[in-house]
Amino acid sequence: MVNTRWAALGVAAALVTACSVGGTQPTKPLFTQAPAPQTGGPSCLLPDVPTVDDGRGDPYFPKDGGPGYDVTHYKLKLKYDPPTDTLTGTATIEATALERLSELHLDFHGMKISKATVGGTLVTPTRIDDSLTVPLPVPVEKDAKLSVQIDYSGVPQSLDEGNAFGTNGFLHTTEGAFAIGEPHSATTWIPVNDHPRDKALYDFELTVPANLAAITNGVRTSETVAGGLKTSTWKVTSPMATYLATLAIGDYRVTEGTHKGLPVINAVHNSIPATTRVDEDIARNGEVLDFLVEKFGPYPFDALGGIVINDDRISFALETQTRPIYGNGFWGATRSNTDVIAHELAHQWFGDSVSVDTWQHIWLNEGFATYAQWMWAEDEGRVTTQQEFDRRYATETSPIWSVPPGCPGRARIFDSSVYNRGAMTLHMLRDKVGDEKFFTILQTWVKQKKDSNATTPQFIALAEEISGQQLDDFFNAWLFGKSRPRI
Ligand SMILES: [Zn+2]
Questions:
Q1: Which residue ranges form the domains of the chain, and what is each CATH number?
Q2: Averaged over 53-62, what is the pLDDT?
Q3: Which of 55, 97, 356, 90 is nearest to 193 (CA)?
């Protein structure tokens, strides 16, 4: 995810930097002050919360997700009627029991459930707030396979998560709808095990009025029109975290093509004038991807694209798997912005393929995507990674020094520190271990952790292993300290 406010500040500051250096490369600034004492340390990383009732145990969001099972596949049949804002869905959830189970706890917000079955047997789910309990007809043992089918309908309700997270989820628009949000979104349109630790494969079948585009994640496998309705099917063939599921239904100009064999679908909302740079920039996503492949290794997925929405409620972009969604605020009337594309596409490796084990490890997503964005801007000849580092380091009073990106706290998972001090950490790691080892660390990380989950201590261990250096003090200062590290 990236926020337009930060993106705008970033560009403004980059322009200032570019003007002030007059084309010369600034040297690393000299700082003479004594090092500030470090506080925090990896002990600020929190253990999982013991499962009290229906949550997965995330220390920041203990009630998210459900315990004791692993969803392997969501099969979603969804029909949306924009004039009435009504979504009708059937979700078939295939799961494996991780322990003996007598019920399944899912997350689901709003909507009316008309029928639920487990293995074909009718059951009666119960709900408390957004927690949906599906009783099993008979208890199952560890490793048993489960198939739960839920029929539902209603007017989807978005989530208002206050200042920290904003408005998320399924949002009705003038002519259609879209779904976006982190850390929560999917529960507003799909019953899910809503935690990134439970990634699964997805099949979507979307039915909408024939005059509208309907786009989601993955590869589109069919599209048919009948009786004024358009039905398309989509396949997500690599495990996907729930918050990365998306949907855009509306009046979009859709461009389809391929990039080195990857099917590409880009969509820009038709209310965005074609005179802006949006279409041109989005069309460059194959080029941006090639740059990132060079840095990180093979692209982890089998589809590519982007969706640009035009909606005042959304001031961010999100790395929805294979097809990021961008708020139009990243562009404006004449501005070009490929940095945001580099950021969201870098997340396909860092965040989507390698997902956080719990939300406290969020810098593994945002620090890395921000650093990728810096590297792209450098490659484009606009501002170097060193300049990005220097101008942030130079601000001794910056609030990023008091928020440790390695354990930012629940309300600060999208704090500027997670992004910028996170990226600075990587820049300093690169400085410390050298380019060759730095990129070996990144490439080994995404290879080892592909399609799974990861923690900060695991990244530190890999960096130490590949570099042959003891890096505890380094990471303690950069990721876990509450003051500006000495360089
Ligand atoms: Zn991001």
A1: 2-49+358-480 (1.10.390.10), 74-96+164-355 (3.30.2010.30)
A2: 87
A3: 55
